[in-house]
Design goal:
This protein has about 140 residues and is mostly helical. It contains six helices and two strands; from the N terminus they run H-H-H-H-E-E-H-H. A hairpin with a 2-residue loop joins strand 1 and strand 2. Helix 1 crosses helix 5 and helix 2 crosses helix 4.
Length: about 140
């Protein structure tokens, strides 16, 4: 999906990491960098680098806390909201075209599997939210 979306919209000039961070901010307005690092599973320094590049591109705003810059929050600008909408639209279009190219039997199988796939996505999200529940590396 990521490769196809970047190929479908090369003019965005944004990396997948930037687009994912914009999407995360869009879903969680006013997020603090530390929260974003946790949600995106990125190092705080990576989030700071992404946030700075997105601020320079005027896609996010940073609001500092009263008296404490560590309590900064990030929000999308109108241009940032447009970038997220464009990214989602490209992804939805790609999925629609890809699904439409499948044989009817495959589409039917996928449709029947949607509840189980939603359960699986929820279980994966739960693992992401609870590091204690993750399996040990072998």
């Amino acid at each position: 999906m990521r490769r196809a979306a970047r190929a479908a919209d090369p003019s965005s000039g944004l990396s997948v990491a930037q687009l994912e961070m914009l999407s995360c901010i869009g879903e969680n307005p006013g997020s603090r960098p530390g929260q974003l690092a946790t949600q995106l599973r990125l190092a705080p320094s990576s989030v700071a680098t992404l946030a700075n590049s997105l601020r320079q591109a005027e896609l996010v705003t940073r609001t500092g806390g009263a008296g404490d810059r560590r309590t900064a929050s990030l929000d999308l600008t109108p241009a940032g909201e447009a970038a997220v909408l464009r990214w989602k639209t490209v992804n939805e279009r790609l999925l629609s075209v890809a699904l439409g190219s499948l044989p009817l039997a495959s589409r039917s199988t996928l449709e029947d599997a949607l509840p189980a796939l939603a359960d699986l996505a929820g279980a994966v999200d739960a693992l992401a939210d609870d590091p204690q529940a993750q399996p040990a590396a072998s």
